[in-house]
Amino acid sequence: FACTGVTDGNILRGVRFFGDGTRTHSLVMNLEERQVRFIDSVHLEKRPDVKVRFS
């Protein structure tokens, strides 16, 4: 099972837009391996001058 938040909810945050891309929060469950993963992803625009800042 996998899902990605579109709007804010109790488990996942919704999609966030910023200057050079978007940020998503996803949940992946694997019952065979008994794993639950929360994934925080940053998707950058495909431009050669994109800058990333971590704070």
Q: What are the salient characteristics of this protein?
A:
about 55 residues; mainly beta; four-stranded antiparallel sheet; 4 strands
Q: What features would you describe in this structure?
A:
- The protein is mainly β.
- The chain has one domain (2-44).
- The chain contains no helices and 4 strands.
- The protein has strands at residues 2-4, 16-18, 21-30, 35-44.
- Strands 1, 2, 3 and 4 form a 4-stranded antiparallel beta sheet that branches.
- The model has no long low-confidence stretch (mean pLDDT 91).
Indicate the topology.
Blueprint: E1 2-4, E2 16-18, E3 21-30, E4 35-44
Antiparallel strand pairs: 1-3, 2-3, 3-4
Q: Helicity, in percent? A: under 10%
Find the count of extended strands (DSSP E, 2+ residues): 4
Task: Please indicate the count of domains.
Answer: 1
- Which structural class is indicated by helix and strand composition? mainly beta
Percentage of residues in strands: over 45%
Q: What is the H-and-E element order?
A: EEEE
Average pLDDT, to the nearest integer? 91
Distance between the termini: 31 Å
* Radius of gyration of CA atoms, rounded to a whole number: 14 Å
Quickly count the helices. Answer: 0
The low-pLDDT segments are none
**Any idea what the shape is?**
elongated
Q: Can you summarize the main beta sheet?
A: 4 strands, antiparallel
Task: Give me a quick take on this structure.
With 55 residues, the chain is mostly beta strands.
